[in-house]
Hints:
By secondary structure, this protein is α+β, with helices and mostly antiparallel strands. The protein has 2 domains: 16-154 and 283-327, 2-Layer Sandwich (Major capsid protein gp5 fold); 162-278 and 331-337, capsid protein of prophage fold, CATH 3.30.1930.10. Helices cover 26% and strands 29% of the residues. It is built from 8 helices and 18 strands.
Amino acid sequence: MNAIIRNPFDAGGYSLAEMTQAINILPILWTRLGEMGLFAFEGVTQRTVIIEQGDGALNVLPSVPLGAPATVASRQGRSMRSFVLPWIPHDDKILAADIQGVPAFGASGADQLAALMLRKLTLIRRKHAQTREYMEMNALRGIAKDGAGTTLFNYFTEFGLAQIATDFVFGTTTTNIQGKVREVMRAVEDNLLGESMTSIHALVSPLFFDRLISHAVTQEAYKFYSATGAQPLRQDVRRSFPFAGILFEEYRGTVTLSTGAAELLIPAGEGIAFPIGTIDTFTTYGGPANLISLANTIGLPLYARQLMDEKDRWIDIMSEASILPVNKRPRAAIRLFSSN
């Protein structure tokens, strides 16, 4: 059995809880959906979730003990699906060569190890944050993908729902852009299905944003906004433009998949509009770590542990997450595009 090393993050001995707490409180390079706090995290005790669809809204059902009465669905227009939470492990290691040499002035070898461990954990934390952003952005669009870019399932297909899309027809100079925005707003409102919201936000590709602000109908409005409200001599006004009730924001997020390929989080020339301030529409479910000691415990966003090689040659740093983001009202997230 591998020996457990001393935890460099406190004065006591190592524990899984301490290492997991350390990686979960580390500062991360926040991604846009993380900054917005759109998807609330909810831990579950199982590695699968059962999602029930009724009248266009998706609900996650609670687990029950074996032999207990099951939850019962209405027979009117409802269906259930069981989804496995993707398991996302990521490991690193510290070799003796990584800390070999003369310590910095006033520092001990233990201090070097702690500093290197902190750097490793921070990098791991950022990789998991990017993965979560990628998965949540796709869930916002109604798709579940893994880190290789493989589609695990499509919520629209699974539940027989049709995605709503609005064509802004930017290539026609007489297009009523305000009317298109109102169309999007009404579609969001109609598909909240009893949910509340405070506003509507749209993350759009650079091409969509450029065509929006340069259209004959919106040019004057953008010129006035950029000249007065945003103080363009001091601020970058490319990023956002409030128009007719929706805040349009340019989003250039890109991730590098495990295959090495780069993928845009918003397809070129498109955008996604969605409600802000909802109570129970966007949730990322997290299951427990794949460890016997944590079976049936409430899941955390991320787990970490460290183990020393039995011959004292390296330290393994192991991390994992089991997360599944869900947009419970997928038709309230409207695809934006232009056909010309």
